[in-house]
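hey so i finally got around to running the thing on that chain from the lab meeting. sorry it took forever, my laptop kept dying and i had to restart like 3 times. anyway pasting the input first so we r on the same page abt which one it is
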Amino acid sequence: MKEVHVNLHNIRNCICGKCPSFPGKWREMAHADMPGLFCAHGKSKLEIEQIGCICGECAVQQEHGLAGMYYCVNGRAAG
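ok and heres what got predicted. didnt touch it at all, straight out
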């Protein structure tokens, strides 16, 4: 497993914004705090209601061989 870096490739492939658990408040903040890519950034600073996780469908997770879920709650992927 490789550490996930914040770079343009990973940002473009990130699907955090499509997740049913992704907080709607984030959209109001519009990149002011954390733009998703929680597997690299770590836990969300906003409260997350765990109503489904799509990390397993993400190209970033697959490319980096990650096995975790709910990075927005549990923190970034370890390298």
